[in-house]
Write a structure and sequence with these properties.
about 325 residues; alpha/beta; Rossmann fold; five-stranded parallel sheet; two-stranded antiparallel sheet; 12 helices; 9 strands
Length: about 325
Amino acid sequence: MSEKPKLAVYWAASCGGCEIAVVNLHEKLLDVDAALDFMFCPCLLDTKKKDIEALPDGAIAVTLFNGALRTDENVEMAHLLRRKSQILVAFGSCAKGGCVPALANFSTPEQLLNTVYLDNPSVDNPDSIIPCGTTGFPGGQIHLPGLLGRVKHLAQEVDVDYSIPGCPPESHQIWNVIEVILSGDLPPKGSTIGCGALTVCDDCDRTKQEKRITAFRRNYEFCPEPEICLLEQGMLCMGIATRSGCGAPCTKANMPCTGCYGAPEGISDQGAKMVAALGSVMDIGDTTDLSEDEIAGRVDAFLAAIPDYAGMFYKYTLASSTLGGKR
């Protein structure tokens, strides 16, 4: 067995993008390998769960745990890796705030399964079979893990030492975090690392003026000016309510920030922050002689350009937000 500190990377309810971000360290992966025994990563290595269970508690120096908790297997692995790890990191937006998997919290598990397997125009399922439980085959049995009632982020189930935001985290930030961990000069427990403390607007070099928006516009409706603030052009850019550190690659590519680094330092609810920001910049025209109903009508017409409030404002943070989902 290697005497180097052990590194584990695990995925729960996630897309695999965080593993790709690790691979995108490129030649620095050799430096990681030189300093750490990269010994557990289901999509890259053939280490078995039983191998992890056989380790003494605390035998893994660092685990980067990505993905939300959607199934009872996800929860089981979260507890196992918490027990076996000295440092457990919520790695990426899914583990930190629930991300896209947590948008399922606006539906019950039964509603989701019905949509996926039954009430779906692209599914041919005449026997109305919904995969679940244990199924026997001549060679043995296959057991599917059960769905949780609600999607959780990692810290809602186990004690988390640090969080790294991003969908996925930028590779240069992953390397910064690894360097900090190897140096032993760790920030206070519970810190969000691999990011900045300000907003994406501070990373973005677009020209910013007084924001008065007369209408929201979608990406496909026009080609935005490349040097002017996207929010000022009417695009729903989440940069004003999103933590810095990514380097603003989306706005540099003429696309609005979608908010994957989560809420800025000191803000507990990213969606509420964005709603407050939009409320302060909406321009519905002169309302001097309008009734309350007429003003409300203008506001409703203004907001009608936003097709999905929850999917826009809580795409990455619903599980960790005050809203949490539908109850």
